[in-house]
Design brief:
single chain; mainly alpha
Length: 436
């Protein structure tokens, strides 16, 4: 159990302050995804009220994804520029207001506009969270912390069906958006209490300060100044990560945005069944995030290099994804949920490792920028795939849809096998040939 003790400076010291910060980040991810999935739970009602087609729904999703990509593009730089503390306030406050505004929707245009605003705020949150983890954790422990951060996303998605369904059945979908959107504001106080930069935090014990000093050590030849986008784009490894995220994130948004609607409209699930059963795959996703993060950390502690630890987990977990094609052929609700659980477990395992790679490549002062570059790529890929999915769904081609989202993550893992993973080094200066 953590020990709290007063010191001469009249401040409290708390062993493992970093885990308190991760706890707040976990709650932030939870609310972020609860707000995000709320639309997918109630979209059958909204579609009926507003007369929206699958293509209209894809357009609304793309409004979110376009803003998400844009926000990732500047959100990472914003986190590195404003700092972790301030960027948390900005992004959480913005998305909470946007989520509440969904209650005022009157049709396709207004719903797409509010969805665009939501995407601007939600994407910027994750570079801030990854940056905080890079500041507070040793590389060998970062995948565990990232796993907890991302587990909040799965818990939010897990709570989405029962919470959103219950609130909607009791109050209607407009009040539901107000209530779930307001949750974000509750995160601001604990963040104010718990987060400081490691060197300025009054609660850090001498033991943790030594750990943080080791974690902050800059390898010889690494960048000491804040890196710009152009600095990152010089490296083949960064382009490999960009390509892998372009493919991987496309599948993620299918599971997030389309599965509830698919189960209701194509497989005969009721809203009550969604609330009662769809939480199970998201529990499996949480287990996958923790398992994936802990496995790569375990391998590193056993002496395996970071590249082997990350890549072996990516390929191993990605091998489960093709099983999703069986969902479209299964006639049993139980089997559908079981298959989705296996698939989301596998997807979570690859996701936590590929997202931790940003902390392996960049120093903490520039992690937000690199994470934003990769996230921008993933969001652009998702915009394209959501358009394709909307087109295919209007034509009932779900077999092809499940085939794509099942095999794309495995391709992403194979791409990552070609990337050397380690701290990016400054390019050697060109030799001075004058006088030779």
């Amino acid at each position: 159990m953590s020990e709290i003790r007063p010191v001469e400076s009249a401040h409290w010291q708390f062993d493992n302050v970093r885990w308190l910060i991760v706890g707040v980040l976990f709650c932030g991810s939870l609310v972020n995804y609860l707000d995000r999935v709320a639309l997918s739970i109630v979209v059958p009602q909204i579609r009926g009220e507003f007369g929206l087609s699958n293509s209209d729904y894809a357009l609304i999703l793309n409004a979110f994804m376009a803003a998400y990509a844009l926000s990732y593009g500047f959100g990472g730089k914003l986190a590195d520029w404003l700092g972790t503390r301030a960027s948390f306030y900005v992004t959480v406050g913005w998305w909470s207001v946007a989520a509440c505004l969904h209650s005022l929707s009157r049709g396709l245009v207004s719903l797409a506009a509010f969805r665009f605003m939501l995407g601007l705020g939600e994407a910027g949150y994750f570079p801030s969270g990854i940056r905080a983890i890079s500041e507070w954790f040793h590389p060998r422990d970062r995948s565990k912390a990232v796993g907890i951060l991302l587990a909040g996303m799965s818990v939010g998605a897990l709570l989405g069906p029962p919470v959103v369904a219950a609130l909607t059945l009791k109050f209607g979908w407009r009040v539901m958006f107000l209530l779930t959107g307001a949750l974000g504001f509750s995160l601001l106080l604990p963040w104010s209490l718990f987060y400081r930069r490691p060197e300025r935090h009054p609660w850090v014990t001498p033991g943790e300060r030594e750990y943080l000093k080791e974690a902050a050590a800059v390898p010889e030849g690494a960048y000491e100044r804040r890196m710009m986008v152009r600095d990152f784009l010089r490296y083949r490894t960064v382009w490999t990560v960009i390509a892998a995220r372009l493919i991987l994130d496309s599948s993620n948004y299918f599971f997030l945005f389309w599965i509830p609607d698919y189960l209701i409209r194509q497989r005969g699930f009721s809203l009550a069944m969604i609330g009662g059963m769809l939480w199970i795959p998201y529990v499996a996703s949480d287990v996958g995030l923790i398992t994936g993060g802990w496995t790569s950390s375990y391998l590193m502690r056993r002496g395996f290099p970071v590249g082997f630890a990350r890549k072996s987990c990516m390929v191993g977990f990605a091998s489960l994804l093709p099983l999703v094609v069986l969902v479209n052929w299964s006639t049993s609700p139980t089997w559908i949920i079981a298959l989705l659980s296996i698939v989301l477990f596998g997807f979570a395992g690859i996701a936590v490792n590929i997202q931790t790679v940003a902390t392996d490549l960049a120093p903490s002062h520039s992690v937000g920028t690199l994470y934003g570059i990769a996230g921008f790529s993933g969001s652009v890929g998702a915009v394209f795939l959501q358009t394709v999915i909307g087109y295919l769904a209007d034509r009932g081609r779900y077999g092809l849809i499940f085939g794509m989202v099942g095999f794309l993550p495995f391709v992403s893992a194979l791409i990552m096998l070609t990337a050397p993973i380690g701290t990016l080094r400054r390019p050697e200066p060109a030799p001075d040939l004058e006088g030779t």
